[in-house]
Amino acid sequence: MTIIIKTENLTKVYNGKFTAVNKLNIEIEEGEIYGLLGPNGAGKTTTINMLVTRIAPTSGSAIVAGFDIVKNSLKVRKVIGVVPQDLTTDEDLSGYENLIMVSKFYDVPKQDAIERINKLLKLVDLQDSASKLVKQYSGGMRKRLELIAGLVHDPKILFLDEPTLGLDVTTRSLMWKYVRDIQEKLDVTIILTSHYLEEVDALSNRISIIDHGKVLVTGTSEELKAKLKGDIIQMTFKTQEDAEMMKKYPNLVSSKDLGPNSVRLTVQDSDLEMPEVISYISNNKLSVTKMTVQKPSLDDVFLEYTGKEIRGEEAGDFKQTMFNMRRLRK
Predict the structure, then answer these.
(1) Nearest to residue 18, comparing CAs of 48, 41, 45, 49?
(2) Is 92 inside a domain boundary?
């Protein structure tokens, strides 16, 4: 196992007051797809902006592909690629022309760039559309072009932000295939952020959930789900009093408030427990308005550790990050 990214007590404090990242310690293995999740304001975007050398840490350190993000920031930029969620390719150029332009930003020798671009176009099935103007591309084609634009200079690490944002379910699933192919065939390490937890679940070898600038938990998807130790019953009642009474059900593994009149209960085995739950509700005359039963999902893990549902993330200007990296490539 080779560690390609390692942070030690990485910290970012803004204006001497607000601590966005607080002594963060993570290790990312070479060749893995690493999912990084966090609720609004968790420090996820700030962490990535430090790792791609857009901003400097207040204290602590990070090594990326063998280079210190502060002492060797120029070398870091040469070994990483960034694919922002915002579209950065030029609609008035062809797909091929866009990739050639990116290669020039990174000073890739012309012949090497041509070989690399042809390989990447084929990898994401865009070779037959390379000469078309990007304005003629579908949403999925555009996303595929954005994906390989971050790989033209042959980086060791790819930061991939919201790769399927705005795509329909079928196209998103196809994009997952391309991401897997890129990781396997190019042997690139991918750091993935996404609002779609099923996407992180499907793609990531390991996942870290962070909040308040700290890592709360790290593991494979199955390891994280297993930590919940049971099945999930989510219930909404007419009154908060009923919700509080439900939390006194004797066979709970755990319970958690979900907001007004709502609770999430964890039981060992929902198939065996549901008759007893129904009996408890009836005996105590509780007024249930909604109930769902499910096996643990990554959504449940996220809710368990952060107390929040994942939604609009903190605004991370990845588009500007890409432009800055190109401008500062030397």
Answers:
(1) 41
(2) no
Would you say 194 and 202 are in contact if contact means Cβ atoms under 8 Å apart?
no
Task: Flag whether 8 is in a domain.
Answer: yes
Between CA 95 and CA 135 the distance in angstroms is 10
Structure-token pair, residue 69: 């993000």
Cα 104 to chain centroid distance, Å, stands at 29
> Which one-letter DSSP state was computed for residue 218?
E
Q: Are residues 291 and 158 in the same domain?
A: no
Do 318 and 208 lie in a common domain? yes
CATH of the domain at 44: 3.40.50.300
pLDDT at 326: 44
> Do the domain assignments include residue 55?
yes
Residue 39 burial (CB count, 10 A): 22
Residues 103-148 pLDDT 10s: 999 999 999 999 999 999 999 999 999 999 999 999 999 999 999 9
- Distance of alpha carbon 47 from alpha carbon 55, whole angstroms: 9
In-domain check, residue 264? yes
pLDDT score at 329:
43
Tokens of 177: 């295939």
Can you tell me whether residue 72 is helix, strand or coil?
coil
pTM (two decimals): 0.80
Residue 91 CB coordination number (10 Å):
12
Pairing of strands 33-37, 206-211: parallel
Cα distance between residue 20 and residue 55, in whole Å? 12
Question: pLDDT category, 303, cuts 50, 70, 90?
Answer: confident
Measured distance CA(262)–CA(259) in Å, rounded: 5
Q: Residue 133 carries which DSSP code? A: B
Same structural domain, 163 and 44: yes
Nearest to 318 by CA among 200, 192, 206: 192
